[in-house]
Design brief:
Length: about 240
């Protein structure tokens, strides 16, 4: 129970900044039955309770990496095949949820399947989900935090050239960094093996921010819909690149 309270406090933290609320906003309160489901899901993820998580997942969940394993079978195969995979899935899913759920619009497939309501996380995907076309801020990322350090070089030992709080900045991903070629190979890696994103500040300077604070890093789509069997996780989709 203590762990659950800590997660709920983190929800409040992300919504504490007025600048953040335009993009990071939890709308779970808009439906009491969904809120109850979300709390059950969070507790199952905290407990790494595989059987409980399976119960909360739709049989036709969109989550597969391998076309040979569609639906829930593919979800289990890809994300819960062993203890290590389950631990990583629970950690990643909790992080997405910590950025809040937004109430969304049903797409054509969801309507065909008889879903009546849908919520998705992370909440900022409405404007910053680069894997899908038509987002508001194409090729830009939201910096997720208050007073986030922007380093002169992609290393934690480098001096900060500025700080940003929930700003929208042009960025280059670590995979394709035109501003700093071979950024991974020619600099000291982050102690925890994380990647650095190059960002362009408002004054034109180029700096680096660790992946934890860049919206582009959170590309998985977690959707929960009200189905004929009740609320279920219907998508944990990891697009290609992705």
């Amino acid at each position: 129970m203590k762990s659950l309270l800590l997660v709920l406090v983190s929800f409040l933290f992300y919504n504490s900044s007025l600048k953040a609320q335009a993009y990071v906003l939890d709308e779970s309160y808009k439906d009491e039955s969904f809120l109850a489901f979300k709390l059950k899901l969070v507790q199952a993820l905290l407990d790494r309770n595989v059987s409980e998580i399976k119960e909360l997942v739709s049989d036709d969940i969109i989550a597969m990496k391998d076309p040979s394993f569609p639906g829930k079978k593919g979800f289990v195969h890809d994300f819960m095949k062993d203890k290590k995979a389950t631990q990583q899935f629970c950690k990643d899913a909790l992080k997405l949820i910590s950025f809040g759920f937004r109430k969304g619009k049903l797409d054509d497939l969801e309507k065909e399947r008889g879903y009546t309501k849908v919520f998705y996380a992370p909440s900022f995907h409405r404007d910053f989900d680069y894997c899908y076309g038509g987002t508001k801020y194409q090729d830009k990322a939201l910096i997720l935090g208050d007073n986030v350090n922007v380093r002169e070089r992609p290393t934690s030992k480098s001096p900060a050239i500025g700080q940003v709080s929930y700003e929208i900045l042009e960025f280059q991903s670590p995979i394709d960094d035109h501003w700093e070629p071979l950024v991974r190979e020619n600099t000291e890696p982050h102690p925890k093996g994380k990647y650095w994103y190059a960002v362009k500040l408002k004054d034109g300077k180029i700096g680096y921010i660790i992946e934890d604070y860049v919206s582009d890093n959170y590309y998985i789509d977690l959707r929960v819909a009200k189905t004929k069997e009740g609320w279920k996780v219907v998508s944990y989709f990891m697009p290609y690149r992705c």
